[in-house]
Amino acid sequence: MEEHISVTSLIIVLVAAFLTPIVLKKFNLTLLPVVVAEIIVGLIIGQSGFNLIEPNEWLDILSTLGFIFLMFLSGLEIDFSIFKSGKRKKLPNGQLEPNRFGISVIIFLLILGLSYVISLGLSFMGLVDNAFFMMLVISTISLGVVVPTLKEADIMKSGIGQIILLVAVIADLVTMILLAVFVSFQEEGGNMWLLLLLFIAGIGIYFLAKFFKSQSFFETLSTGTVQIGTRAVFTLIMVLVGLSESLGAENILGAFLAGVLVSLLSPNKEMVQQLDSFGYGFLIPIFFVMVGVELDVWGLFSDPTVFLLIPLLFLGLLLSKLLPVLVLKKWYDWRTILGSGFLLTSTLSLVVAAAKIGERIGVIDSQMASSLILLAIIACIITPILFKQVFPLLETAEEKKRLKIIGANQITMPLTKEFCEEGYDVYLYHARRNQSGELPGNPDFTVEKLEEYSIEELRKHDVFDADVLVISTNDDELNTTIALEAAEWGIENIITKVESPNKQAMLKEKGINVFSTIFSSRAMMKAMIASPHIADIFATREEGLMEVPLTNKEFHGVKLRDFPFFGDAIIVRIYRGNESIIPHGDTELQLEDRLIVTGNHENIYELEYLLE
């Protein structure tokens, strides 16, 4: 007879994982990352606390799957679009910002080199045995902490925010690969050629997946009960995990590689949200709670050297990040530099992974593994708080959006004035072959005269240094050329006037917003004939439609009927990825939703502030 496995311990772990975010919210402990709180809860119910958990196969399997899925999501978090070099912007101090990718690589190389020097020092003191392994631990940076902190601070798209993000992404990629190489050398029978075979297999799978994704039948299988995309993701994870284990590599490398491949394939936001919900809603909390359960704090502190080791390691973490970011002093002030260094010191997932792998292959003992996990917890609690205290968040967050408009006409001129009144930094560019007429000056916005609408002339006037670019000349071909050039420069919001249906379709495929005066006028006339009161919403300024993005995590999952504030604002439509949703009381809001709102402008602006 097969021995019956009790599910009591699993139920306790699941209940603990369920209650943790509720307790954080109830007591307003928002500065503490949820994953850190889950480890602390594990400490309370585990062998360091009430010892309520008895390890069994159920917990081992689910915890391992949580670990694998965590590494997959770490790879998925990497947005490779940030590696594209866009136009360098002018900073408030008048200087041109540094090349983001170049300076990020330099900072990471300095972090890696300094981490090795610190590791050699700890090895010389007899506190660590393997300097290379400790270098990997010290140089890691947690994307899972950096990304939400940057979003919350509203500096993700700023120059310094992109530099911090790039350093974290490069660290995540390089340290994971170096860890896999290190393990391959340490384990008996490890073979670097087999590790290379895993990456070759990943490249082959990428091109195969890209081919199938482009097939029309694949899209028809992505809805309803089939959900072929989600099935493909889980199949990819397990195939690469199984392949990495078969080749003698760590399973987390296969999972991380699967996440990187999915990220490169540009999945829609809805699928990413579903994967995040499944991972952070079920498997990953079990893993982090179990990390705390298995951590023996009392046994750890029975050795007096730990009281010296953990402070020294934490100091090493701080120095390895704060000293390299000093290269930014040429461009940024001290508060920005120190804040950036503190945020880059946050580390968690890879340290936990390295600790568990290092203990398994015998590079470190269980005491050192526990010390590293405890170090990661301390770093994740302290450094985001220090970042928020030091970094000049208010000054960065209040930077005006730069709206640049090409082409002066009866449509763009009134818009220019309106957006000035709404707090945008507006520039209007026009080129007149007939020099007899000049545009009137306006103290609210900048009017710049161009010799011609050529790409060289636009570059010369820094037109592509914009957050929003509107292209409204009378030449479809010219508008298309400028829009495509702007997309190459990485401008996120490009709106261009194009009447040709073929050009409209091509531009939309590239993520460029297109409007047509002929189509818009015809559609408005039709609306006025069929539904005149509905047309008033578009035709009058007082009752216009506005798009409000939901980026505040506090309202994720909240039903519209339970939403605390609307005032005189009404949601008429919700866009979620490519889906258009007609809202009702039971509709649940989700992060990255785009709410189309009408009503009183003051209420809409308050709603926008609340949701961002």
TrEMBL record:
- Alphabetically, which GO biological process terms does the record hold? potassium ion transport; proton transmembrane transport
Question: What name goes with this protein?
Answer: Transporter, CPA2 family
- Could you tell me which Gene3D superfamilies the record lists for this protein? 1.20.1530.20, NAD(P)-binding Rossmann-like Domain, Regulator of K+ conductance, C-terminal domain
Q: Which GO terms describe its cellular component?
A: membrane
Q: What does the sequence similarity comment in the record state about its family?
A: Belongs to the monovalent cation:proton antiporter 2 (CPA2) transporter (TC 2.A.37) family.
Q: What is its main location?
A: membrane
Question: Where is this protein found?
Answer: Membrane
